[in-house]
Amino acid sequence: MELQTSALHAGYEKDTQGTMAVPIYQTTAYEFRDVEHAANLFALKELGNIYTRLNNPTTDVFEKRFAALEGGEAALATSSGMSAIFFAIANAAEAGDNIVCAKQLYGGSLTQTAHTLKRFGIEARFFDVHNPAAIEELVDDKTKVIFFESLTNPSIDVADIDAIVAIADKYNILTVVDNTVATPVLCRPLERGADITVHSASKYTTGQGLAIGGILVERKGLIDKLKGNARYAHFNEPDASYHGLVYTDVPLPPFTLRARLSLLRDLGAVSSPFNSWLFIQGMEHLSLRMREHSKNALELATFLESHPKVKKVNYPGLKSNSNYEMAQKYFENGLCSGLLSFEVEDMAAAEKIVNATELYSLVVNIGDSKSIITHPASTTHQQLSAEELDACGVPAGLIRISCGLESSKDLIADMKQALEA
Ligand code: PLP
Asked: What's this protein's family per the entry (predicted)?
């Protein structure tokens, strides 16, 4: 099935009422037929609903549909993108292990990997996404995950997925790819051999800034990489917390199975049925939106590149951009999503432009249908000195735009008046 067909139909079989829209199963628990039925569900002899912290019919449709879009085998929805990332890493690594991460990551992912996971005894080692070869110097027998973003936020770089996957496979290490900005519409890392994708569903999946959520997706056939792999003993040995279950011995996708039965059970960062339903609505038109976001962003980037007050534009869809070739290789029809940034003279010039725009909302979010403008130096990166800002590729005059679905004519006209105000 083509992606836009799956986005409308995958994972949903109409219930007895024949409802066209997926119902919201707003419930905490489910009645068992009898004691044997309950025991069978807990023992995985029969699959079914137990308690909404573990599974829910609305969330199930969201998970199956998203897995279909990514070309994956199974998915697990979580309460936020940050919890999806935490689950992906915590499902593979424990105290004493390390993970190798691209240094071009979303700020929350940087703090989670460098600081929070450190307190759990998991060390993060960083490589430059433009230099995948450096990964080989960082991995050892305690490395459990190589983590990177396909299209990075906020630096807007494109990862060489094939090169990173080849190194990970050489050492039998799991790759976790944050595919939030590209979305499965533009990029499908699992089909190129990546093992797990994670998403903040709060962005393009909902599409209208309606809800916080996350999802992780497991590639088809991942069991072959986990089975008998000494690096991941906990997938091959009995889980004492689940009456001795060996995750690679059952005919179910092992990574999502363990994330659900162990992590979701114990940490509880579950997607609410209502939010899952919102994500299902968003997915119906995700492919249409991503084309339009990408078209608007390219037109705006082209305009900005020609404006004398703009020093530099970062958008991989521009031929002048150093990521252009990589974007052509990895993104569907070379479409590059809605995120771009540009640099003006200094902090004062940036502040003036941000304050002068009328159509762009000053917000720290991306992937909304309404366009968003952000000034990282005064918000997300406020604590950094001028030197530190330059070192992480966020100069004081940098402005980030998440291009929405307004008419590109209006977006360009408003940006022009703001630049010239
Ligand atoms: N990954 C990326 C690339 C993001 O941009 C974000 C949020 O901006 C996240 C993960 C975190 O997602 P959430 O806000 O849903 O926790």
From this structure: Belongs to the trans-sulfuration enzymes family. MetZ subfamily.
Predicted TM-score (pTM) of the model is 0.97
Q: What one-character-per-residue DSSP string does 79-116 give?
A: SSHHHHHHHHHHTT--TT-EEEEESS--HHHHHIIIII
Give distance in angstroms: CA of 204 to centre of ligand 1: 11
Output the CA 112–ligand 1 centroid distance in Å.
Answer: 11
Residue nearest to atom 4 of ligand 1 (CA): 106
The CA distance from 255 to 320, in Å, is: 40
Ligand 1, CB within 6 Å, residue ranges: 80-82, 106, 108-109, 149, 153, 178, 180-181, 200, 202, 212, 214, 366
pLDDT for res 385: 74
Q: Is 388 exposed, middle or buried (0-12, 13-18, 19+ CB in 10 A)?
A: exposed
CATH class of the 286-419 domain in this structure: alpha beta
Burial class (CB in 10 A: 0-12, 13-18, 19+), 13: exposed
**Which mutation among 103, 200, 381 tests ligand 1's pocket best, with the greatest number of atoms within 8 A of CB?**
200
Residue ID of nearest Cα to ligand 1 atom 7: 200
**Domain locations in the chain as residue ranges:** 3-281, 286-419
For residue range 8-54, what is the model confidence (pLDDT) as tens digits? Answer: 999 999 988 999 999 999 999 999 999 999 999 999 999 999 999 99
- For residue 77, give the H/E element and its range: strand 72-78
CATH number among 3.30.230.10, 2.40.10.220, 3.40.640.10, 3.40.50.1240, domain 3-281: 3.40.640.10
pLDDT band at 373; cut points 50, 70, 90: very high
